[in-house]
Structure formats: C-alpha cells, structure tokens
User: Fold this.
Amino acid sequence: MKLIQIGTGASTVLLNIVWLIIGFVAIYAGIKNLLDKENPSRYGTALFWGAFGVACAFGTWLPNKVTGALVLIMCIPAIFRKVKVGHEDTPTKEYTASQFGKIGMKIFLPAMMVAIFSLCFALFTNISSMVGITCGTIVSMILLHAYSKKNTPKVFLNDSERFLSMMGPLCMLPQLLGCLGGVFNAAGVGEVIAGLVENVVPKGNIVVGIIVYAIGMVLFTMIMGNAFAAITVMTVGIGAPFVLAYGANPVVVGMLGLTCGYCGTLCTPMAANFNIVPVAILNMKDRWGVIKNQVMTAMVLLVFQIIYMILLS
Amino acid sequence: MELLKLLGVLIVIVGFALKLDSILIIFLAIVVTALAGGLGFGGMLEQLGASFTGNRSMAIFIMILLITGTLERNGLREAAAELMHKVKGATAGKLVAAYGVLRGLLGAFNVGFGGVAGFVRPVLMPMAEGAIRNTGREPDPDHLEDVKGMASAMENITWFFWQVLFVGGAGGVLVQTTLADLGYQVELVDLAIVEIPVAIVALVFTAIRFILKDRKLVAKYYGTSLSSGASKQTDSTSDGRK
Assistant:
C-alpha cells in the first residue's frame, strides 16, 4: 500500500517546513494586530500570537527551556483577557452570493482537497498526514485562485487571521492540554491515580477496566465540560494501568475513550458552546432543549462503544 | 506526600467545573504539578518546551484556516444551502436528518459550513417552517422549539462523531500524543478507521429517531386529520429561497 516511501531525514525536513508555515501564519496574525488601530489590545494580542508563532516555527531548533518559557509567556495575555479582535473584514452576503453565482458547486472541490490529501498520504505514503494536509491546503489555494483572481495570497492570509482572532486563545486549548498531559506523566500523576483506583477496581480484569474507563470518561467530561481535558487525565490514570497494561488494543481503547467522552459532552450544560449557546442563538425557551434531544443518542453510543471495546480488546 | 501530585488534577476538575478561565486552569495545573512532582522550575520549562514541540501537530488547524475563511468568502455556505434545497418531500424531521447527513459527510472532510449561527438559524429553520407551511399549517411555536432542539442536537452529534474520521483532526492527534507519552505508538489513520462504525450508528440512529419524533410531534400539534395537499402554498420568502 505504501507506494511512496521517504527517509526520516526528508520527513523531518518536510515537517519542519509545515511548522514554519504555521508559525508564520500566527506571526502574521500578531503583526497585523499590532498595526491594527481598531484593536483595543494591540500589544497583548500581538504577544500571544507572536509567542505562539515563534515557538511553533522555531521549536525544532530552540532549546526546550526557551520554548517552554515562550509557552508560559503566551498564556499571560490570554489569562488577563488581553487577546482581542481587531478590524474584521467579513465578506458581505452580497459578495459571497455573487461568488457562489460564479463558482457554484465547484466550491466543494477545494473544500474537500485537504481531507483527500491527508487520507491519501496516510494510506499510500509513509509521509506524515501533516505534510498531506499542507499539500492539500496548497492545492486548494491554487484552485480557489484559479476560480477567482480575487483570491490572492493576501486574502488567504487575512482570512486565516480573521478566523484565528474569531476563535481566540481558546483554540490553543488542545495543545496546552497535551502539554499538561506531558507534565502529568513526567511528575508521575498516573501512578498515583492508579494506586488510588486500585483500592476500588480489581486489577487484571480488562472488561471491568474498560467499563470503568468508558463511564469515567463520560462523568469526567460532564463535570469538566471538555472531553479533551478528561482524556489526558483518564488515559494516564485508568486507561493505561487498568486496560492497556493487560494487552488491550491501544488504537481501539484510546480513540473510543475520547468518543465515550463526547457522549458526556452531549449530556452536560458545562459544554456551554455546544449545548447552551445554541439555545440563545435560536431563541429557545428551554435551557435544556438541546441536551434533552441528545441524551438518548449518547446512551446508545456509550453502550455500543463499551461492547465494541470489549469485543476488540 | 504522593497525593500532592494530584493537586494539578484537582485544579483541572474544579477549575473547569467552576468555569474559571480555561487557560488559567491549565497554566496553574502545569506549574503546580511540576513543582509538586519535583521537576523544579527549570525542569518544568524543559518538559513544557519538549511537550509543546512534540504536540505541534495540534496546531495543524492553523494551516487549514488558510482556506477556511476564503472558502466561506467564495460561497461554500450558499452551496451547502443549495444542496439542502434538493431534499424532496421534506418534513421538518426529514430536513433535520438531511442536515445531519450533509454535516456528517462534510465533517469527515473537516469542512464546516456555518454551524448553528451560520446555517441552522438563517437557512435550516426557515426551510423547516416553509416545509410545515407547505402542508397548509401554521407552524406551532412549541413544535418549532422542538425542531430547533433537534437541529442543534443533530449539529453536535454529527460534528463530534464524524469529524473524528478526518485524518489529522485535533481529537485523533490528542489521543496519538497521549498514547505516545505512555509508550504506545499508533497511526492517525487507524484511529480514524476505528471510529467508522461509531459514526454510522450515531448518524443513522439519530436521524431515524428525529424523523419518528417529528412525525409524533406533527400529530400532537396539528392533529392527523389535515390532509397534506389541502391548501398547498409555496411561500417563496419563508423557505429562504430567492
């Protein structure tokens, strides 16, 4: 299946190019906001995107301590809510409608390019999916430019800045949680949790381990409102010592663990973005109106996934 | 003293539960865990830098943002609305189900087209109201409330369980790095393949359930007696079509 194979040296070079591009997009967002007189917090915003961009672009070559310091620095304007949105160049309805008139359904082609490239790279090459996504993005940009000469490099950069600013510092949450997981591991948090859970849950029984892990993911996610935060703690503390240590398939247990957490997300008002904000946007009367429609699916999927994990473990 | 290492976990759980600033919570949890775990300040920076550099895959969404906004600028949302208009013999329930299929399939390609604010409210809800009017009935506010709830639920369910099929999505990458920290190497594409049955069950179950639920709601709010073809009016403004 792997028709194209490259060496680790070439692979590292390609990945470094990916991180450089991403870093420069973030640095561009920082500089654009620094120069933007409409932004109420130019310096904080620039510091956030700039520190992230430098750490991302040059992390390969910087000493780890410097990158670590940049990560801490990046958090400071975010914590003090000094990362703001500046001038927004949102396209008008008339503009998008007229572009649709010219381009039509062909717009789906560049829209799907990224996923197609990512999948093809994963299936047919040994090159990282990250490089596949990058190639897909580039092809997609070329197509968009071919459709309309108005789609210049500056438009792509400004639109990416617009979306970065709209998402705000919270878009860094998964990566920061990944860092937290690394620190948990280095400090030996998993062993301590495992030692506590051992008093309640018998070790060595994979089926019991899977059920505790899956339901634990749901409950943790419901309390925290965030499956990404739950999976780092739960996998380190319960998934690894109680399930994976006894030979269960890490692909199945790790990934389904996350989507068991998503079942928790469907059931909790803590996940306000998904369950409470829509109530406001749609002017609904019942605050629980979205959650009520999700509980049944969540239960069915939880049971399905537990059985699936047990069968494939 | 070992239990002190759990302070960071406690901060995460309590912090998120109290809705404190997410980044503040993680910042504190990192610092407290590193110090309680004996890493020291230098060790913490070292570990943090190594983790950040190793976790850069999670920033890949920024690469994709290079086209996300420009796709919107060039009419992606209008194209999705056009596809939705092709649903024949629509009832509100079937429209919600069709939205789920479109949202799920595009979600697997990591393509969003507006969400609740950008699509459900301005496109899907007027279409659902139009579908009810087409049967000669005046939409009941309580029925619309249920349709809104189902549409938002469909939006979340399909996005959660179909976006994990995208190779390189944040969820898969987070699982991959979490497992790598624990010494298990897994491929992103295998993580996506595992989710295929889950995605199908999620969509099929929810779609069928909502179609049946909507049928019951129609009977409850409007009675079953009204014949569907009685006064068929197509209100060209209310169904959002120009």
In short: Chain A touches chain B through 145 residues (CB under 8 Å). The longest helix of chain A spans residues 8-34. The two ends of chain A are 26 Å apart (CA to CA). The mean pLDDT of chain A is 92.
